[in-house]
Automatic annotation (TrEMBL):
InterPro entries (alphabetical): Aldolase_TIM (IPR013785), NMO (IPR004136)
Transmembrane feature ranges: none
Keywords: Flavoprotein, FMN, Monooxygenase, Oxidoreductase
Family of this protein: Belongs to the nitronate monooxygenase family. NMO class I subfamily.
Nucleotide-binding found in the keyword field: no
Protein name as it appears in the record: Nitronate monooxygenase
Molecular functions per Gene Ontology: nitronate monooxygenase activity
Acetylation found in the keyword field: no
Amino acid sequence: MSEKAEFIKDLSLPVIAAPMFLISGPKLVVECCKNGIVGTFPALNQRTSEGFEEWLIQIKSELEQFEKETGKKPAPFGVNLIVHPTNPRLEADVKLCMKHKVPLVITSLGAVSQVVNAIHSYGGLVFHDIIKKRHAEKAAEAGVDGLILVSAGAGGHAGNLNPMSLVHEVKKFFHKTIILSGCISTGQDIATALQMGADLAYMGTRFINTEESKAPEEYRKMIIEAGASDVIYTAAISGVHANFLAASLKAAGVSEEDLKKDRKIDFGKELNTEAKAWKTIWSAGQGVTTIDDVLPVSKLVKTLKTGFKNAIEEQYKLLEVFPKN
Ligand SMILES: Cc1cc2nc3c(=O)[nH]c(=O)nc-3n(C[C@H](O)[C@H](O)[C@H](O)COP(=O)(O)O)c2cc1C
């Protein structure tokens, strides 16, 4: 029996629109699922567990309505939970995932078997994000169904490993679903991720620049204007290494010296500014380099499908040329 997630074969493209703090909400999730790709959001995008439950009810009812009206089965949706002692909502939010049978739970920071078992109890799946082999091994031991390999250049708390080595390293011991994350912004990138050995592509930054995201207009504009070297990897903003747009760092008065700090800057005390990580200092991955528009999700998925198909067809043609004796 295959150990890969069953739902993949029913998607319109092998894509998960990744959960993003302050960016993803019901509108984005529902639109992704209607278009056949997995939509997700962080539970913490709602300030309370009550608010989180409201979103779950809204998403489920809109997707049920869609299925009733069109006869088409939407893609499953997912929720991101921070599994860490500093998240006081974890227990309540896990219970809500169980109550509403959330199809996919994406855990970050901690992979613990209690959470995995709770989600498995109703048939849900757990994918866990990692940036290195050691974390992947621990998550595999906890029984997760998939590993999200967050490679160098990704938006948010990115890793610093090359995706090729990360995929190979993890595939040596993990035979369930492999999801690749980091700079995947085009249909060709999705095809490349699969060629590299992933089962699914995990796309964040590209979905900031959709009409359904919660990103302010200025943020999307900054993504369009940025190139890969306008993305700065630093621990000084959130306390953990993450990628941020240089222009938003500059606007907040963060200097190059500040960026070298190995700890979170106290913006108020040290820089006398009200700047806030994620809210006014904006994160994006190096995949900005191929993003030059803001699209509705339906149009973006269509474009991704065309790019994916073209890339595979082009690659297939290579067989007429290589390998040679
Ligand atoms: C603005 C922003 C916020 C993010 N917030 C979260 C989050 O709350 N939880 C999480 O697991 N990952 C978060 N991520 C990481 C994404 O889920 C995903 O791994 C990453 O965006 C993929 O790389 P890409 O942006 O290069 O496509 C965030 C990324 C961005 C850009």
